[in-house]
Amino acid sequence: MKELLGGCRYIEFPRTTERSGSLTPVESFKDVPFEINRVFYLYDIPGGENRGGHAHQECHQLLIAASGAFDAKIDDGQNSQIIHLDRPYYGVYVPPGVWAEELNFSSGSICLVLASHPYEEADYIRDYKRFLSYAENLREGK
Question: SUPFAM superfamilies, alphabetically (predicted)?
Answer without folding.
Answer: RmlC-like cupins
